[in-house]
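Run log, item B.
One chain of 540 residues. Sequence copied directly from the ordering sheet:
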Amino acid sequence: MPVIKCNYNDLLRLIGSEIEKNELIEKIPMIGADIDKVEGDDINIEFFPDRPDLLSIEGVARALRAFLGIKKGLTRYAVKPSTITLNVDSSVKKIRPYIVAALVEGIKTDEKLILSIMDLQEKLHFSIGKDRKKMAIGLHDAKNITPPFTYQAVTPQSISFVPLAKNEEMNLEEILKKHEKGIEFSHLLTDCPKYPILIDVKRNVLSFPPIINGELTAVNLTTKKFFIDVTGTDLKAVNTALNIMSTALAERGGQIKSVKIVDTPTVITPDLSPIKMSVETHYMDKILGKKIGKDAIGALKKMGFDAQPKNGKIDVIIPKWRIDILHQIDLIEDVAIGYGYNNFPYILPKSSTFGSERNLDKLYMIMIGLGFNEVMTLSLSNKEEQYKKIGLEDGNSVEIENPITERHSCLRQMLLPSLLTILNSNKHRDLPQKIFEIGNVVDKEAKNRLHLCGIKIAAKTGFTECKSIVKAFLRDIGMVANLEGKEHPAFIKGRCAAITYQGEKIGFFGEIAPQVIETFELGHPIIAFEVNVESLKKEG
């Protein structure tokens, strides 16, 4: 989870009130956070990734002002009009179609502000930006650029500029091949015949999104006017990032000014107008198990909302930066936080139930007896790991609709890729390594299946050893199964076999193919097997 480093004195200045450090450390976890560590005046706070508005000290200060009763209710920021226009050319529509922008001026820039806003930028890139795929932020010193601005797509060699942290001009193609950020994020523009660019009226380059800004607009201690552009493929992510960035600068004393985005349709950004949602009082009481009454209004105001009762409901005014509020249940959770979990009575469950241990002990003991060490991995995976890296095509995986990270975007259909990833993380360890996992996978019918996978990496191993391990495993489990040849892209051709029981294929084993070993950056022979535990349990 993201960790935010807050300087105690800077945090107090932003909150606008004096609070003892020990009291502050005691209160912070009550808003849904953990204190990671405290070193002198630095307080490191760990937040859940569903609250991107808390990914900076400015956002933390805003939340604490309301929670501590210093200034309850919705924080409102004035957005004044500017004369800035940003024209969107149709050439970007099939590449990176969305752009929004804002100007924030009147800021007294210092080192704390720059470090904080840059850190927020990167955390937003990683979280809601999905490592810049959904959105990327450009932060500029506005003094050297002249509006109106134009967002368009150009051929890779047609325009050159000095990229951030460099002193020589490069064209867009050279940036992707030579610049550190270009190399890191070039995959986001794969197969694009043209690249997006943001320029001013004099054709000065502000940014080459989502790769790098221009050195011309680099932010420094003399910056007084910040121009923010956010581009991307997801309009909600783009607008959310702009709202969070611009209000963070406003917390530092800046005045937000709008930008006219000439597109289809033309819009004025940022749009900080709040959203209205209602909570049914009887539903809230049922979920919380307690009639809170009017205290719910105060609890919501402590969480940064405006609220008032209306005909058996509570009308709640929600700020635009709270994108985690999707349903009234989310507001009920905030009622509980604002009211205080310690104010709810402790009660025992109304009915007693007794669980029973799943009969898997025999499988664990067999694998341990064969010299394997148990590991546990996440059921969440991604298509590249599950399919591409082992040579498979997408097998109709169950995808996560709104994943927190691209690494966890689908449910796994087999354990083998997860264990190969574990080996990659431990390739600095001595050989041989023998690991196994018993865990859930999700099949093509979206049903849970319990699988067992064992894998070994060594300086010397092969199909014959893998076959002997599988036969020993089947013997100890008491199953008489047939072994027959099988082709699988993750295994060497002719060195892979299927495990068949009563006419049903329940698993496979073999020697991992060199191209798969290379993909996972493992330089030694690997053998592996995977079986459906549901079939084994019938025998065990």
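Observations after the first pass:
- Residues 496 and 510 are 4 Å apart (CA to CA).
- The longest helix spans residues 235-251.
Flagged for discussion on Thursday.
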